[in-house]
Inverse folding.
């Protein structure tokens, strides 16, 4: 019962998470607040996937708005029976929530891979992914961070922002899973009641 009751609030929670994802992902393009590295394409390759802006950002935001619209009582009635109408709404909500799982899950994977790969920076050997062979071991090897000389503090910048994005997309993933569970329960119960009212059972 509690899961069904908070089904609508789950959709609302996706909106601030999506907006924050867009903002944090944009910050990745401006290390230390400077746009010069983005203009010269001296940024990690995963940044150009736009996953934080498109997938866990705009797409999840659109899904949240549609889900909230579906939950409004003013939504178009697809059939005469109220139980039938709610069941169809739940089916659509399940499909949309599963899309949310796909979008946020994809973003979470890309952010994690980006964090493991490390930043694209300038060192004594030139511009390269100097931590790509450490399998993420550089995250605890703080003295090695000084090997990146340009952009300044790029390792800290990437680690903090990517960790935030992983947390945001992870929360989106959990919320979408809960939404699927809530709507699935509502659909099954609603379908059962429709069958009973129609005299099938």
């Amino acid at each position: 019962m509690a899961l069904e009751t908070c089904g609508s609030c789950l959709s609302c929670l996706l909106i601030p998470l999506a907006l924050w994802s867009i903002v944090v992902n944009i910050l990745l393009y401006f290390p230390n607040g400077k746009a010069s590295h983005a203009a010269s394409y001296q940024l990690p390759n995963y940044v150009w996937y736009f996953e934080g802006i498109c997938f866990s950002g705009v797409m999840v935001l659109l899904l949240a708005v549609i889900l909230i619209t579906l939950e409004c009582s003013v939504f178009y009635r697809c059939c005469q029976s109220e139980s039938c109408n709610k069941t169809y709404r739940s089916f659509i909500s399940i499909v949309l929530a599963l899309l949310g799982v796909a979008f946020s899950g994809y973003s979470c994977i890309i952010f994690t891979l980006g964090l493991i790969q490390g930043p694209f920076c300038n060192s004594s050997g030139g511009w390269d992914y100097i931590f790509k062979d450490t399998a993420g071991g550089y995250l605890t090897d703080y003295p090695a961070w000084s090997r990146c000389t340009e952009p300044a503090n790029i390792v800290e910048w990437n680690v903090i922002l990517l960790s935030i994005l992983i947390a945001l997309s992870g929360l989106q993933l959990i919320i979408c899973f809960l939404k699927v569970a809530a709507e699935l329960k509502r659909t099954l119960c609603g379908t059962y009641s429709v069958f009973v009212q129609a005299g099938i059972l």
